[in-house]
Amino acid sequence: INAEYMGKGRIFEVSLADLNQDEEQAYRKMRLRVEDIQGKECLTNFYGMDLTRDKLCSLIKKWQSLIEANVDVKTTDGYVLRMFTIGFTSRRDNQVRKTSYAQSSQKRAIRARMVEIMAREAGKCDMAELVKKLIPEIIGKEIEKACQGIYPLHDVYIRKVKVLKAPKFDQAKLMELHSGASAVGADIDRPSGETAVEALAGSGGRL
Prior knowledge:
Layout lengths: L2 H5 L3 E5 H5 L7 E11 L2 E11 L1 H7 L6 E9 L5 E10 L14 H20 L3 H8 L3 H9 L6 E13 L5 H7 L16 H9 L5
Antiparallel strand pairs: 1-2, 2-3, 3-6, 4-5, 5-6
Helix pairs in contact: 4-6
């Protein structure tokens, strides 16, 4: 069995902070699937997204309602995704009351609005464009704005994205995604031959 056969289809979970070299995005976990292997390079594609547990725990507080919704959507390039969103009620301006609990009817209306916006935003673009919307939280901000008339929300996030079904593998499309990518990372000098053996023996290693 060759390395290419073993590598294809493997899924890696990577912090978005490491991918974008931005520590402020450390709360996002990206799942990438190996679609093709060319020499020493693995060509990956988006396979899902999640929030870290510590981020979720930091969002949950007393005196507010937690509202969640999910929907199955299909992108223009044929990916079927399940998207989950999470949001929290916030205090109104000049509110005296300590709590900010939404009524059941308000929660239903907010969930319906969440589902509508997720389906609309994901259904009118391809996967690459959708990922560009997910990273800066464009959809979450859109939901906040749309729900102001029902009940004010804050900390609205696309909590999770799962790929349920992917279209048939397209080599040209994958190469187009990776056309602007560059290799990141420093070369490592590896000791070879006798140098490596001497280093191992000198450090007390067993040959």
